[in-house]
Amino acid sequence: MKGQRLVASPAIPRTYRLSLPSFAGLFVVAVCIAVMMPAVATERKGKKGPKKTTTKAPKAGDTRVNKTDGAEMVFLPGGKFTMGGKGDTYGPDQEPAHEQSVKGFWMATKEVTRGQYRKFMKANPKWSIEGASADICDGVYLRYWRESFAETKDDNLPVLNIPWSAAVAYAEWAGGRLPTEAEWEFAARGGKQLEYASSTGKYSTKIMRFNAESPVPVGSYPPNPYGIYDLAGNAEEYCSSLHKEYPYQADDGREDLTAPGARITRGGSWKECIYQRARSACRAKLLQGLCRGLVGFRIASSP
């Protein structure tokens, strides 16, 4: 009406400006969500994630086969033992006897054979008879293989006449390493502080290849209490360790694979006539660039 003041209606808040169809839509969405949630939860519950792979810790006496070279490995539990002993004419550096401990490790039950080394040479031509440098070991590399026992076709004989560096290269190719001097003696003691590295802890040419005319196929004599063969006799064996005075300390540089100097050999060989060489504590050494027809090796590895 004329002259009459018009008053604006109060604004309706936006949140309440919903039509009936909008409320209906929200209701439908809410119902759908309520219906679907249990199904989604059930589906999630039914789905299994990737299985966790747990590596079982090895136990004393467990065995496995090395995939690369087929070597049987046995697990030694580690522990404390007395390393070294009373020195004599053939081992004055065995003193002082001292308590030593090693962690659990795997060790090949047998020495590396010519057959296994043949596979290594095929995969590593620079170490083959044809591909090796003529000055390796002053030309006597694998001499027993090529000459002295050339007529013997038995691939189960231990490989001999190789330098320490070839043994290291083989061990790395096989996914392992050489045993340390402490590990080797721990294995030789057989868990019983055996004086000789034989099956009984005693010296006898009936249970070890000693004072003989030639080596024999690995594993020809009874194993020691850990199930390891030929720790005494057959092939004298390389260790990773440099020759240093006792007590043995792994962190004093003797386990440096790049250091020059003589490396430890253990166990005596088939040709030895000196029985003391078969003692678990007896140490010998060989310069890294030399080869001997008495020395071979076996591999070890950490868990």
CATH superfamily: paralog of FGE (formylglycine-generating enzyme)
CATH topology: paralog of FGE (formylglycine-generating enzyme)
| Total helical segments | 5
Q: Could you tell me how far the N terminus lies from the C terminus, measured between alpha carbons in angstroms?
A: 102 Å
Domains (count): 1
The radius of gyration computed from the alpha-carbon positions, rounded to a whole number of angstroms, is: 35 Å
Strand content: 5-15%
Strand order of the largest sheet: 1-2-5-10
Question: What is the general shape?
Answer: globular
What can be said about this structure in brief?
By secondary structure, the protein is α+β, with helices and mostly antiparallel strands. Helices cover 20% and strands 14% of the residues. The N and C termini lie far apart (102 Å).
Overview of this structure, please?
The protein is of the alpha+beta class and 303 residues long. The protein has a single domain, classed as paralog of FGE (formylglycine-generating enzyme) (Alpha-Beta Complex), CATH 3.90.1580.10. It has 5 helices and 10 strands. The N and C termini lie far apart (102 Å).
